[in-house]
Structures are given as structure tokens and as C-alpha cells.
Write a structure and sequence with these properties.
CATH topology: Glutaredoxin
Oligomer: single chain
CATH superfamily: Glutaredoxin
Number of helices: 5
Order of helices and strands: HEEEHEHEHEEH
Length: 164
């Protein structure tokens, strides 16, 4: 009887190990996820806090990007242009560039509305970078009128579903 239990035990352990490898795990370094309350960030460059609260029934899209990160810059520009003709989602675009001249050039080249763009010259060492748990590639957050994160890293196409 003991001889027949041993192979069964080995098979059970082996199959358990395999099944654990298919379980999707949350990234333990991910700081803010949908359902979390959004912190109220303060930009060190201008010593101003960002008002992320939208009117009832509306959203705020907080997008982080940098001029040196082509992918985040492209995503930010796409989002800005997708929201040009709506008032249901207010966008706040935060550049993590260290130099204001780089930020200004990127805003102009990408055809962004400068009133919606802010700069955080502290870059990766800034408090806002740490507070939002940003990494290379940056992120964006869709926030409801109560200050709760509804979605993270939305695309321009996904925004259409929130508008409908």
C-alpha cells in the first residue's frame, strides 16, 4: 500500500506546482489599482496640488509621461486628442521631465493644450512618482467624481466606452 501511495503523492505535488504557475498574480510593486482612492498629488515644480475631482457623473484622466519616453509621450498625445471634443472627461497631463524646456518643446510638438499640461521636474525622485508607484513606461489613471480609480492604463479606444 505504501508503494502505491508514493507515486500518487509525487503526481499530486507535481500537478499542484504546475497549476500554481498558471495563477495570475497581482504585481506586488503595483501601488494603486482600480478601486483605490486617489492620493491628492502636489507638484514640486509649482508647489501646487492637483485637483483630481471632477463634477458629478464626470471623470478625470491623470496621465503621466516624459519627453524622453517615446511610448508614454505617444499614449499621452493620443489620449489628449481623443478627449478634445468632450467635457465628460477632464484630462490632466503630468510630464516627469527634469527640464522645463524639454517639456515645453514636447507639448508644442505634440499639439497639446498647454493649460492641461503640468510638469514635475523632480522626475523619478519626486514624491508624486513614488506616491503613484510609477515606473518606466509611466501610467494613466481614470478617476471618478468621488476620487476613486476606475481604470488604469486606459487607451484612447477604451475611453470611448466610458463616454457612452
Amino acid at each position: 500500500m505504501i508503494k502505491s501511495v508514493k507515486p500518487i503523492f509525487v503526481v499530486l505535488v507535481f500537478s499542484s506546482l504546475i497549476s500554481f504557475s498558471f495563477i495570475e498574480k497581482k504585481d506586488p510593486t503595483e501601488k494603486l489599482v482600480p478601486g483605490d482612492e486617489t492620493p491628492m498629488p502636489v507638484l514640486e515644480f509649482e508647489k501646487q496640488s492637483l485637483n483630481l475631482r471632477a463634477d458629478d457623473g464626470k471623470y478625470t484622466l491623470l496621465s503621466f509621461w516624459a519627453g524622453y519616453d517615446a511610448m508614454s509621450r505617444m499614449k499621452n498625445a493620443e489620449l489628449c486628442h481623443a478627449l478634445q471634443n468632450t467635457d465628460r472627461i477632464k484630462m490632466i497631463s503630468v510630464s516627469m521631465d527634469r527640464y522645463e524646456s524639454v517639456f515645453r518643446a514636447a507639448v508644442e510638438q505634440d499639439g497639446l493644450e498647454s493649460a492641461l499640461c503640468c510638469i514635475e521636474t523632480g522626475g523619478k525622485s519626486s514624491e508624486i512618482f513614488k506616491e503613484f508607484g510609477l515606473r518606466d513606461g509611466f501610467a494613466n489613471y481614470l478617476i471618478d467624481s468621488d476620487g476613486m480609480i476606475v481604470a488604469k492604463n486606459v487607451t484612447a479606444e477604451e475611453l470611448t466606452s466610458y463616454l457612452n
